[in-house]
Amino acid sequence: MFITITRTGLRRIGVGLSVFAVLTAVFILFPRENTEPTAAEQAVPASVSDWGLSFQTEGQPPVGNVSAEELRQYNAFYVGDTSKKTIYLTFDAGYENGCTPAILDALKKHNAPACFFVVGNFIDTAPDLIKRMAAEGHIVGNHTLHHPDMSSIADKSAFTAELNGLEEKYTALTGQPMQKFYRPPQGKFSEENLRQAQELGYTTVFWSLAYVDWYTDNQPTDEQAFSKLLPRIHNGAIVLLHSTSETNARILDELLTKWESAGYTFGALTDLASG
Questions:
Q1: Predicted confidence band at 83 (pLDDT cuts at 50, 70, 90)?
Q2: Domain assignment present for 149
Q3: Who's near 67: CB < 8 A, 6+ residues apart?
Q4: Which residues form the domain of 187?
Q5: 115 with 91: CB under 8 angstroms?
């Protein structure tokens, strides 16, 4: 069987092939994007790696650089229920310099639960304080084994080792499993970090109120501390303080009294996570 192709037919075939080639090139150079990204893709911009806050109105919750709703997809929080006058106290504890006993005394006086986010060095050098925290009803949270920039750790096994390594130290000391609350060192994180922590069963805890209290050789005065912590307190606040601060150790009793006088109560992170 023979098929006869005329010049007109060849011309038509040539035009058809040309159109096909152009369309193919368009799809290769400009592939059609999925115009409906998934919720996870929308959740946390890839560029975010440092937790940040914008205080717009005194007495109101600040705006985070990732919203509470977006964080919740990864079982992460920076603020609690903003309809309730409840404060969640948290302390970052990178090492012990003698301030923690006074902090624990003030918490005990006010029957205020807190979460101490500790690192491996704290467990090694201050085991009695870890035991006291647990005995007095506080949460000992995971601030990683070595306090690295976790946003720079892409390898899941390395990320897991930082959290599991601290868990193992805590369990070896207390005989109890560590409660699954995690705070990224320096507030540095990535979307992948949030996902990895969630897969390990952790609640990631950021904060909605903090101030510059970590320079041990340049501590704020009592007045400076109060000027930051009193006007900015708000419903559902997750407060970050450093246990190495002499100012915090000195003012905590008075600070808690002032917050109580303003009608606030103190809640545990376990209530926040379960809600």
A1: very high
A2: yes
A3: none
A4: 80-274
A5: yes
Cut 0.85: pTM above it = no
Q: What is the pLDDT of residues 36-49, one digit of tens each?
A: 334 333 445 555 68
SS3 content of the chain, % helix, strand, coil (to 5): 45, 15, 40
* 65 domain-assigned: no
Specify the number of domains making up the chain.
1
Banded pLDDT at 154 (limits 50, 70, 90): confident
CATH number, domain with residue 100: 3.20.20.370
As a residue count, the chain comes to: 275
Active site residues: 92, 242
pLDDT of residue 48: 62
Q: By the 8 A CB rule, do 71 and 79 touch?
A: no
> How far apart, in whole angstroms, are the C-alpha atoms of residue 246 and residue 270?
28
Q: Which residue intervals of the chain are DSSP H helices?
A: 7-29, 39-43, 68-72, 100-109, 120-125, 127-135, 156-174, 191-199, 222-229, 246-261, 269-274
In a domain, 41, yes or no: no
Residue identified by tokens 């560029």 is 47
d(CA 129, CA 11): 88
* Distance from C-alpha of 30 to C-alpha of 256, rounded to nearest angstrom: 59
Residue 16 lies in a domain: no
Question: For tokens 């090694």, what's the residue?
Answer: 124
State how far the Cα of 51 lies from the Cα of 186, in Å rounded to an integer.
Answer: 8
Residue with tokens 């893709």: 41
CA distance 242 to 215: 10
18-27 residue pLDDT tens? 433 433 443 3
